[in-house]
Design goal:
The protein is α/β, with parallel strands linked by helices. The protein folds into 2 domains: about 15-110, no CATH class; about 170-425, no CATH class. It is built from 17 helices and 13 strands. The protein has helices at about 15-20, 55-65, 75-80, 85-95, 140-145, 155-160, 175-190, 210-220, 240-255, 270-275, 280-295, 315-325, 360-365, 370-390, 395-410, 415-420, 420-425; strands at about 20-25, 30, 40, 40-45, 45-50, 115-120, 130, 195-200, 225-230, 260-265, 275-280, 300-305, 330-335. Strand 4 and strand 5 (about 45-50) form a beta hairpin. Helix 12 runs parallel beside helix 13 (about 360-365). The longest helix is centred in the last third of the chain and has 18 residues, at about 370-390. It is globular and about 60 Å long. The protein starts with 14 loop residues before the first helix and ends with a helix.
């Protein structure tokens, strides 16, 4: 499969709307990116349809007309309005994306076959990240079952502050998840040769049984243009990780895959990182990353979810990134948490006050080494900085954030004030 550059230039083009689909099997939903509203996927003649459902077709049609579709696209619009670099703009400049085949003959086609597929198979996970929820983490689900409702729920309701923190003790997982998983694999059997990237997320893929099924599929097929990306917390036993990586890399050596990438999710550094991603063993993370760098040819990268709490030690993470990149280029990407229904997690709630805590320093120390991808990622971080600088502090969301982390401390026997004194001071400024 030759690269097919995205041909749509008119309107408000977004590669992700045409190229990319995400399937959330735990929720029986689909989306075109991590920002937008989820919609139920559909079935026709017992076949799964997730890329060309009604809402996605309507969104593409609107964008061709120069209209923002709403339904979550407001994030990119507000980012661009604030002078930042949105996911939409970043995707248009990123290399390696391939346009759907249908656009070859019709640059206005809206019913298309995706070239990128992102899959959330289950919520099996060993961590309790502060920005995550039980739909993506079985350990958070278990925590909610033990502790029940959030103690501040009634307070929020009485004060008309919404129900952002009023979470139930358990969640409803898609009751047809096994059947839907089977249907998705039927789709994959039919379309695997049309994809140039498959991303497996979680949960934690190295702990999920569906990862085994995906690898078996790839072992009996061949797509030399396909990149397989595993998003892992890299806090799984190193022996288990090494076994999986050896099996997956064999597919590359056999020419059945083009490349294998491992994204080790990590948001900041030190004990602060272990607080944000509760259950994280940073030493185990380092061991797994060092193995990938020194013992394999696998392409590694780091993905960070940025909250106010990750900002103070973000420069330390970037410095470690620079160190690892002297062995082999390690890429980094950062996205703001809190844009999908939990705005109190967004670092912009402190406005420009948060800049001296670490964003400016992180930008200063980030070494791009002349790499075009790294420069794009640095520009994205600069865009987040610009957005913070141009956003007024939101005292309500700050209050909600403090209530949220106090509840986490109650549940997990932690104390954020000891690890994040600069953030604690912002609450009182």
């Amino acid at each position: 499969m030759k690269s097919k550059p995205f041909p749509i230039k008119e309107g408000i083009p977004c590669q992700l709307k045409w190229n990319h689909s995400t399937v959330f099997l735990t929720m029986a939903t689909t989306a075109s990116c991590h920002r937008v509203t989820h919609d139920p996927y559909e079935f026709k003649d017992n076949k799964m349809n997730f890329h060309n459902i009604k809402s996605k077709l309507q969104a593409r049609t609107k964008m061709l007309k120069g209209e923002w579709p709403g339904r979550g696209c407001e994030h990119c619009k507000s980012t661009e309005d604030a002078g930042g670099i949105s996911d939409r703009l970043s995707s248009l400049k990123m290399p390696g994306l391939t346009a759907p085949k249908e656009l070859e003959n019709n640059a206005k086609a809206v019913d298309v076959t995706p070239t990128q597929l992102e899959i959330y198979f289950s919520n099996t996970c060993n961590l309790k990240c502060m920005y995550c929820n039980s739909k993506f983490s079985s350990t958070i689900d278990n925590e909610n079952r033990i502790h029940g409702k959030w103690v501040y729920g009634e307070y929020l309701k009485k004060n008309n502050l919404g129900k952002h923190l009023y979470l139930p003790g358990k969640i409803e997982i898609n009751p047809n998840i096994e059947e839907d998983t089977n249907r998705l694999f039927v789709w994959l059997e039919e379309h695997i040769h049309e994809l140039n990237k498959v991303m497996i997320l979680g949960g934690e893929p190295f702990l999920q049984k569906e990862t085994e099924r995906m690898v078996r599929l790839l072992e009996r097929t061949s797509n030399p243009n396909l990149t397989l990306v595993i998003f892992s917390n890299l806090t799984v036993d190193p022996a288990r990780v090494q076994k999986w990586l050896a099996r997956m890399w064999k597919l590359v050596e056999q020419g059945k895959l083009d490349n294998l990438q491992v994204v080790g999710s990590l948001d900041c550094w030190g004990p602060q990182a272990e607080y944000v991603r509760n259950g994280l063993d940073l030493n185990k993370y380092v061991d797994n990353m060092e193995f990938i760098l020194h013992k394999t040819k696998i392409t590694p990268s780091i993905n960070s979810a940025m909250t106010a709490l990750t900002i103070p030690t973000l420069p330390d993470l970037i410095l470690q990134l620079n160190k690892w990149s002297k062995v082999r280029e390690v890429y980094w990407s950062g996205m703001k948490a809190g844009d999908a229904g939990r705005p109190y997690l967004n670092p912009t709630i402190f406005g420009k006050d948060i800049l001296p805590l670490g964003i400016d320093k992180a930008i200063e120390v980030y070494e791009t080494n002349g790499d075009v991808i790294k420069q794009a990622q640095l520009n994205n971080l600069k865009g987040i900085r610009t957005e913070c600088e141009n956003t007024e502090p939101d005292l309500l969301q700050q209050k909600l954030l403090k209530l949220y982390i106090k509840e986490l401390d109650r549940r997990r026997n932690t104390d954020y004030t000891k690890l994040f004194p600069t953030i604690e001071k912002l609450f009182h400024s």
